[in-house]
Write a structure and sequence with these properties.
The protein is α/β, with parallel strands linked by helices. It contains nine helices and 17 strands.
Length: 417
């Protein structure tokens, strides 16, 4: 493989000094049931193994600390929990846990996955509570009220078990139907904590093949409905762990749909023979390997890094590509960078991202990419991911003209922080 090939993969350094096995993953998921995963190139896997090594080296001097995902289950005042909710949600969340392990392993990160809070029987623990209103009163206009009440009760309920909601990662599940937008259904990225919302239903389970029978959700039978709602839980969880939307882009479309694009709707559709299903982008997996629910260790997680990039440049190359380059100086090492190209419209769902491994000694990095062809102003977002689980962000813009060329005349020399 030539140096140009490596650069196209976003690799500047492959100085692998024997990847350490420090058992830094929060929890290792079982390998018995394996679904197809993308066949990532060896160069990508090597790059990612080096990123994991850098995170492990840093955390080895920290302390063991479980920051598992806590799950709070809410019914309304006129409801009981749906049948077999503990058993079903244990299956669903364990499947999601295993899926992340499979995806990370295929990328070269090892079987890194989410730690789940479990009870004495090994089942996912549900902290159960009741909301102070009837389900029949819930409409889209009440969504914020519902969300705020869920947070208030979760803070009190978890506090009784000495779990600090404001320094934890929490999934809140409600039994409010999502069909008309009445239920909170989102995740909120944050540097030092995370929270997200999804829904339970009487039929929610890790079963995806049934395409006959009653239409149970938005005109879908049970199989496709489970794909959307279980995929939705996985999608919102990743928001809660700190990630944003990102599309797979044309270059990776053969793998399926990015979980953080529209992959919440295509989850496990391959089991029905309807498509390739969903997968985890290399940049999404890269960020997760430093987050506490995935590491099992902490070192200076509360510390905001002091970082600068000298000689940060954006320049056009021959025949259309652009290059972003610079030299990092940070008191908390950076194990990876990611550049988002976010074209106009559709929020950030159609953004694509490019990943690079900075030089460990000099901090030098280069990201060479072809911008998306959508005409108009594109936001560029550059993230540096630190080994303590935090990140730093810079932004800039480019203009794509009607001929698909990048006009850098409005690009600022100084990127915004």
């Amino acid at each position: 493989m030539t140096m140009r090939d490596l650069r196209n993969c976003g690799i500047l350094t492959l100085a692998l000094v024997g990847c350490l096995s420090l058992s830094s993953s929060a929890e290792v998921a079982p390998k018995e049931v394996r679904d197809p995963t993308p066949a990532w190139p060896a160069a990508i896997q090597q790059r990612n193994a080096e990123m994991k090594r850098r995170v492990d080296v840093w955390l080895a001097e920290g302390r063991e600390a479980r920051m598992p995902l806590h799950v709070v289950y809410f019914t309304c005042s006129d409801q009981e929990p749906f049948p077999e909710h503990r058993e079903r949600l244990d299956r669903v969340l364990t499947e999601i846990q295993t899926w992340f392990a499979d995806q990370h392993e295929s990328l070269g990160f090892g079987r890194t996955t989410i730690a789940l809070e479990r009870d004495q029987d090994g089942k996912v623990r549900l902290h159960e509570a009741q909301l102070p209103f009837a389900v029949t009163t819930r409409r889209s206009a009440n969504t914020r009220e519902t969300r705020d009440e869920c947070v208030r009760i979760s803070r009190l309920l978890l506090g009784k078990d000495n779990i600090d909601f404001d320094n934890s990662f929490v999934l809140m599940l409600t039994t409010i139907p999502d069909d008309h937008g009445a239920a909170p259904y989102f995740g909120h990225p944050h540097q030092t904590k995370g929270s997200c919302f999804a829904v339970d239903t009487p039929w929610l389970d890790s079963k995806y093949t049934q395409t006959d029978g009653a239409k149970v959700w938005k005109g879908k039978p049970i199989g496709p409905a489970n794909s959307a709602l279980v995929g939705g839980i996985a999608h919102e969880l990743v928001h809660g762990f700190g990630l944003f939307h990102c599309d797979e882009g044309p270059a990776l479309a053969h793998f399926g749909e990015s979980l953080m694009g529209s992959g919440n709707y295509t989850w496990r559709q391959e089991r029905r023979g309807e498509g390739r299903g969903s997968f985890l982008l290399d940049g999404d997996a890269m960020q997760l390997i430093g987050r506490p629910p995935f590491t099992g260790r902490l070192r200076e997680f509360d510390r905001k890094p002091e970082i600068t990039i000298s000689d940060l440049r954006l320049e056009a190359l021959d025949e259309g590509p652009l290059r972003v380059s610079g030299n990092l100086q940070s008191d908390v090492p950076v194990y990876g960078l990611r550049l988002f190209d976010d074209p106009p419209g559709n929020g950030d769902y159609n953004a694509v991202a490019h990943v690079v491994l900075p030089d460990e000694q000099t901090g030098r990095f280069e990201i060479t990419f072809r911008p998306l062809e959508a005409v108009g102003e594109h936001e560029l977002r550059l993230y540096a991911y630190h080994v303590n689980g935090r990140w730093t962000k810079w932004t800039n813009v480019i203009i794509i003209d009607g001929a698909g060329r990048a006009d850098l005349s409005k690009t600022a020399k100084q990127w915004s922080r």
